[in-house]
Write a structure and sequence with these properties.
Blueprint lengths: L2 H14 L3 E8 L2 E7 L9 E2 L3 H15 L31 H5 L12 H6 L3 H7 L19 H11 L3 H13 L5 E3 L4 H7 L7 E3 L13 E2 L1 H12 L3 E2 L2 E2 L3 H7 L4 E3 L4 E3 L4 E4 L4 E6 L3 E6 L4 E7 L8 H13 L2
Parallel strand pairs: 4-5
Antiparallel strand pairs: 1-2, 1-14, 3-6, 7-8, 9-10, 10-11, 11-12, 12-13, 13-14
Length: 326
C-alpha cells in the first residue's frame, strides 16, 4: 500500500473517526492494511455488539448442515414445548426460526425494555414473552437485543451444548480465534463497563446459562477478519469446510427489506449489494465486518463505544475500497 495514501488514510481516521481503534483489510487473502489507533494494539479485544448476531447466524448454518436443526421453517416452540401459551399470545405458535433470523417478529414493546430484560432471570423466556402486539408477523422489525436470544436458546437445546462451546469447536478454534469464557455481570455497572472493554476475552451469558445473541462477544480486528475471510471463501478454511456454502449463501442474500430505512437483510446479516453479493455485520459504536466478493476483500473495523458515529459502510466504500482498486 502506498505510504502517502496510508498516511492520508490514518490522518482521516484520527481526525474524523476518532473512536476507530483498529482496522484490518484483506484482499486476495493477503493483509493489505492493519492499523491501530489511540494506543490500541493487536492484542486489544472489543465488544463487537450486534456483529455477535451474524456470528450466531453462522452457527445456525452449521447446525442446519449437521442436522441438529431441521429447518429454518421449524416453529420456535418446537424447542420450548414447556412454554405456556397465554390467552392473546397465540401468535407465538406461528413464529419460525426464519422469522427470528430475518427480524420479522412483532414485539409488544414500542421502546426496548432493557432494564426489565437485564434484570429478568431468564433472557430467553423474557424474549418469548415479548412476542406479539405491534406489527405483523413477516414484516421487518429490527430488535437489537431483546428477541435474538431465542436463537441462542434454540442452539443450546438443539446441540445440547453451550453456544460458546459449540462455536469453539466448529468455528473459533479452527480459525485460531480465542474466546476464553462465558461472562456474567453481577451489577448494572459491570455490564455497562463491559461495553467499553478492551481486555476481556469472552461471550456474555444470561442467568440461565445461555450465551447472548444480539450482543456480548469480544474479538480482535484480526479475529473478525478471519471470520470474514472464511465467509469470503464460501465457508472454507485451509481445505476444511467450516460453514456450509449453501447455507452461507442463503444467509447472506436478501431475505427481507427494511422499507423505512431502505436496507436489505439476510439471516442476521446486512445485504449491502445484492447483485455483487456484498454483505456486512454491523455493531453499535461503529464496529463492522464487511465482505465484498467482487473486490475479493474483507474489512474488519473495531471501535470503542460512542452513541453516534459516522456510517462505516460509507467509510469503507469511500476511503478503503478505492485503495484496493489499484
Amino acid at each position: 500500500m502506498d505510504s502517502q495514501k496510508m498516511k492520508a488514510l490514518n490522518e482521516l481516521v484520527r481526525n474524523e473517526y476518532p473512536n476507530i481503534a483498529g482496522m484490518v483489510v484483506l484482499q486476495n487473502g493477503q493483509c493489505q492494511i492493519e492499523e491501530y489507533y489511540h494506543s490500541f494494539t493487536s492484542e486489544n479485544r472489543f465488544h463487537i455488539f450486534s456483529i455477535t448476531k451474524s456470528i450466531v447466524s453462522l452457527l445456525i448454518s452449521i447446525a442446519l448442515d449437521r442436522g441438529e436443526i431441521q429447518s429454518v421453517d421449524q416453529k420456535i416452540l418446537d424447542y420450548f414445548p414447556e412454554y405456556p401459551i397465554r390467552k392473546g399470545h397465540e401468535l407465538l405458535k406461528q413464529v419460525t426460526l426464519r422469522h427470528c433470523l430475518t427480524m420479522s417478529v412483532p414485539y409488544r414493546f414500542r421502546f426496548n425494555p432493557y432494564t426489565r430484560y437485564f434484570t429478568s432471570d431468564d433472557w430467553v423466556s423474557f424474549s418469548l414473552n415479548q412476542i406479539g402486539g405491534l406489527g405483523q408477523l413477516g414484516e421487518f422489525r429490527y430488535a437489537p437485543i431483546i428477541g435474538p436470544d431465542i436463537l441462542t436458546g434454540i442452539l443450546t437445546r438443539a446441540t445440547g451444548r453451550s453456544v460458546l462451546d459449540y462455536a469453539q469447536e466448529n468455528l473459533f478454534q479452527p480459525l485460531g480465534i480465542r474466546v476464553e469464557k462465558s461472562l456474567t455481570f453481577a451489577t448494572k455497572e459491570e455490564q455497562m463497563a463491559f461495553n467499553q472493554t478492551t481486555t476481556l476475552s469472552g461471550w456474555a451469558m444470561g442467568p440461565k446459562g445461555v450465551n447472548t445473541a444480539g450482543w456480548g462477544l469480544t474479538l480482535t480486528p484480526r479475529e473478525m477478519a478471519a471470520i470474514g475471510q472464511c465467509c469470503l471463501n464460501d465457508g472454507q478454511f485451509q481445505g476444511r469446510t467450516l460453514i456450509p456454502a449453501a447455507e452461507l449463501k442463503e444467509s447472506t442474500r436478501k431475505q427481507i427489506r427494511w422499507e423505512k430505512m431502505g436496507l436489505d437483510y439476510g439471516y442476521l446479516w446486512w445485504v449491502i449489494n445484492e447483485h455483487g453479493h456484498a454483505f456486512a455485520a454491523l455493531g453499535d459504536g461503529g464496529n463492522a465486518l464487511y465482505v465484498n466478493p467482487q473486490k475479493n476483500c474483507v474489512v474488519a473495523i473495531a471501535s470503542t463505544f460512542v452513541p453516534r458515529v459516522k456510517d462505516r459502510i460509507d467509510f469503507i466504500r469511500d476511503h478503503i475500497e478505492p485503495l484496493l482498486n489499484e
